Amino acid sequence: MKLLHLAPILYSLPLSSARTLLLNRRPRSDIPNTHGTMLLATDGGKNFDIDVTVGADNQPFKLLVDTGSSDTYIMRDSFTCINATSNLVIPEENCNYGPETYTPSSSYEEIPGETFGVQYGAGRASGVMAYETITIANITVRAKLAIADTSEPMGDGVNNGLLGLGYPSLTSAHPGKTVPNDTYFFNRAVYSPVFNTMYEQGLVEPYFSIALAHTTRNRTSTFGGYLGLGELPPVERKGEFTTVPVEIMNNIPANFTSNKRQRAYWAFTVKGVEYGTAAEAENDTLTTDDNPWQVFVDTGNDFSILPAAVVDPVNARFSPPAVWKEDLNIYVVDCDAQAPVFGVKIGDQTFYHAPEDLIYDMGHGICASALVASEKVGMVGNVVLNVLGVPFHKNVVGVFDFGKNEMRYAQV
């Protein structure tokens, strides 16, 4: 789920190309990969898409892999694209989805009395709920899908929707034929998402894993890592896994999760951070901040959105320092800047970011720090949330375990 909503200028920047570096993603022969699949990195390594087929006729699509939401939605044929500011209908291509759209197949079964409506930081989508057949990583299941017939611009030019991997309490079906779009966070008709349906039917173990690839700062499509369903991805790890329990988020109102205090996001408490310049790292004088804060992890978010008390001093360690630009809603940094050392303390380990993952090339000579203050942009409704997004996940193998309600991370 994208919380960071960049200024419109950034969505119209042209594409450029560069060679891609595949770092720390060497296949391991000792790990089976029967229910794993490769990801496609798009938009300069900010989005990660997976191949799926849908329907009795196996229509092929690419969907954004998103641990920060729970619905799987697909844009149907002849959908309506809506301008997020004016609410006016705009050309379909302005929504920037991929060329394929879904046409109801013989296995399509619309669910009466339910409506799909979701609010992301990047925009809204709505439509109907339906049972349909979907295949992901050699696993075929009949599950509830959201078939979207209306959307604001949210695509990456390649995908045609989203694969949500969060907890069922975040699903965005709603009772009734129509739902006001300012109530999408509430009044949920909770259901079992696609992956949960797979393990409930005994098709897969109750965990999935993700390893995102490092990419250079370009805006082309390239290898993006792996998603494993009930298994680990075939990559080398530098150490053992650390384990943390999935927590109920303290500041999420109960009416966001059907008036129950329950797990929704893949959330846990970060114990602290370490940061500093490369020289400070060499001299073993990194700054340590051991103030804990709660966070959720989101592979659908381009940026990591963390407390200002963390972000501001880290961004000041870029050489030259990153500077907040209100009109762009980002911390602008020199594209050739030297990135700082930055590590996040989780469980009994500190996970460090590769320097190249802390700078995003937005095009037009504009580069941004991958770290943004949650007090500035990390909003769901009126709630401020902290997010570990794509920059963090390019440096770890993450295991998301519904069976044990825990998360496991290892550095790569």
From TrEMBL:
Residue ranges of every copy of the Peptidase A1 domain listed in the record: 48-410
Domain of life the protein comes from: Eukaryota
Signal peptide feature range: 1-18
Active site per database record: 66, 298
Keyword Protease recorded: yes
Keywords for the protein's UniProt record, in alphabetical order: Aspartyl protease, Hydrolase, Protease, Signal
SUPFAM superfamilies referenced in this protein's UniProt entry, alphabetically: Acid proteases
Protein's recorded name: Aspartic peptidase domain-containing protein
